[in-house]
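Continuing the series of single-chain predictions for the mutant panel. This is the parent chain; the variants come on the following pages.
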Amino acid sequence: MVAKDKGNMDKIKGKAKEMTGKVTGDREQQVEGKMQQARGEAKKLKGKAQERVQGTRRTTPKDERV
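Parent structure:
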């Protein structure tokens, strides 16, 4: 869940940075904002994948394992 939350925060910060760049006409800041949003989306997807893996782990007793 932590990775998903960090991903969402990165997306929000990136969007703010992109909008600030648009308002000020700073193309570099716009690009940085878009890149930060992409990193945030990647972190969010990583968090979702980790949650799925944790939810599907087998919980068998040690003597039943082969």
